[in-house]
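Example 3.2
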Amino acid sequence: MSAIVPRTIDLATHLRFEVGRVVDAGPSVAFPADLDACRLTGNAYANTASALHTVFGFLHAHRLAARNPAVHQRVGRFHRDVPVPADTAPLRDALTSPDPARAAVTALLVFHAPRVAEIRALTLTDLRDLDQGHLHLPGRTLLLADPVTERLAAYLTHRHTTWPHTANPHLFLTHRSATTITPVSAPWLYQQYPSSSHLLRNDRMVNEAQAKADARMISELFGITLRAAARYTRPYADAAAVRFPPD
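Structure, written as tokens:
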């Protein structure tokens, strides 16, 4: 069974009272035309049609409606929105947090957007060239921004002070993981930054696209396909073409 997107769930909850009145009155045979008359397009149409499918399907399956008028209604395709920058206020708060782990993790995500799995797997060896501003990841080496280098150095000081005798080789530790050789848990890591890692990674790629609009460079820098990178660069490349048309 495919997952129901959060927007569809919100709409299904919002529509349940209206649908209840429709069921009490008897669903109209003109239901598809009624929905089309709303003139919804794109994701608004797809989310609404999907929500109606969900609600009417539930009512019909539980014999609360004699029939499901949405059963043959076309849902349409969902279109991914053009990526936009994230809200910077909570990011600034996290970057200046007195908690060294929170500040370091957020800095990594905001400036360089590695995957969460890569952050969990980081070891002290990966920071062997931190004095040169380098962080080693599988298959690539990041040239760290100064704010990231500073926060990682501060975290290392905190780590060595808090767990001076730990045998755990991983960079990030908790009081529990410090007594093992395993990485920190994913839930702990998720609590260290103010937004989803996907949104922070998305924000970093949006910033890069705004600056250069170079799909190939973004593909290589963040380890995504050219097609995915083009989704970030196309809006800014199109805007540049309008501002500076070819001679």
